[in-house]
Amino acid sequence: MYKLIVSDLDETLIDSNGHVSQENLAAISKAQELGIRFVPATGRSFNDFQHILKMTNVAQQTDQYSISYNGGVITENKDNRLLTTTAIPFPLAKKLFAIGLNHDVLIHVFTLDNIHTLRMNDNEKAYLDGHVELTFLTSESIDHLLETPIIKISFQHLDNDYLRQIETTLTPELAARFDVNYSSHRYIEFNPKGINKGNALIELMAMLNVKPEEVLAIGDNMNDRTLIQTAGTGISVANGVPELKELADYICTSTNDQSAVAEALETFIFNPKK
């Protein structure tokens, strides 16, 4: 019997137009009626998916939880109460920011209350389409964030090979201090070493006394790798990257534009094969 459904948001639950289908919402609601918790697990900050929590009936609810910043934060949804928070040490954040400055990338610096952005471009502006609030940096410095916890840093570029090349430029010392992930076919993302969706799920399972075999997780990209490996049932949507599909227990025939989450719940919860 499943007790947790843990789902990535972008390119998994959310379609290409930024919407959640009625089929997905109905399936989540049906699972909740069976006593199964729905937990978003996303690279977004918790402020940037409150509307999704409302749609899935878990906004401002006690004993309902979210994983955000790729595992950098776990919150109880009631008042977004922080349960765990892991920040990047500021000297490391500065070094990473400097690497971004030396490459042709847009830089997002995630704090608990804001996303500080340098080099906004038209493509990223259209992609975010107003659903994420940003503060634009006016200088090539983050010194003003010295006393502010930095949870995640991401670089944006439309060429994934270019982003992967940036990862190879990290010194061994710096590479050893970060978990590096890729998402949305446009971001390379940096969290402190050991901070990822999978380890956040392990912490949440311990809090809730839930076993891996009682967890179904679904995602699409490499920042979901640890998530689907940790869950007893790990699922990739049809539009998932090949590397994730290789790790998945099940690959949906549906994409995020075809209500893949509903397919997963139908297959494993509502009408499982005997």
From TrEMBL:
GO terms for cellular component: cytosol. It comes from the Bacteria. One of its GO terms (molecular function) is phosphatase activity. Pfam families: Hydrolase_3 (PF08282). InterPro entries: Cof, HAD-like_sf, HAD-SF_hydro_IIB, HAD_sf. This is Haloacid dehalogenase. It comes from Vagococcus salmoninarum.
